[in-house]
Amino acid sequence: MNRTAMREQAFKLIYSLEIQRQKKLNEAIKLYLEANEITDKNAIKYIKDAIYGIEKNKKEITSQIEKNLKTDWKIERISKIDLSILKLAIYEIKYTEIPFKVVINEAVELAKKYGEETSKNFVNGILAVVVKEV
To answer: Which of 1, 98, 127, 134 has its CB 3.0 to 4.6 Å from that of 40, i.e. a possible disulfide?
Structure first.
């Protein structure tokens, strides 16, 4: 499984956790990996690292999103899809060695595929500001 496919699987799990408000991460990850027949060791490691990393740094990641919203926007107003993409991308930018250009490009591609018409511009705009701050 290539990195793009791993990232897409991680995004889908993050999205499902946003929708379900699942508290037991270990159980949710295990069920997701089984249901999607993900057996690639690198994919499993990447997905687990992303989920646990986002959870561990949740306050800082959420803060990054909130402070870069327009003044009349609240984080609750962001679609769960866009929020999931942003959480994964900000985690990768701040806490991994993945080049930010790759992260932003992949996040915009996910937004095009799964988000609304305006999602790609919204995600790109937030991430561009986050990169400047890092």
So the answer is: 1
Residue 57: pLDDT above 90? Answer: yes
The residue extents of the domains of the chain are 3-133
How open is the CA angle 21-85-52, to the nearest 5 degrees? Answer: 55
pTM: 0.94
* Per-residue pLDDT at 21 exceeds 80: no
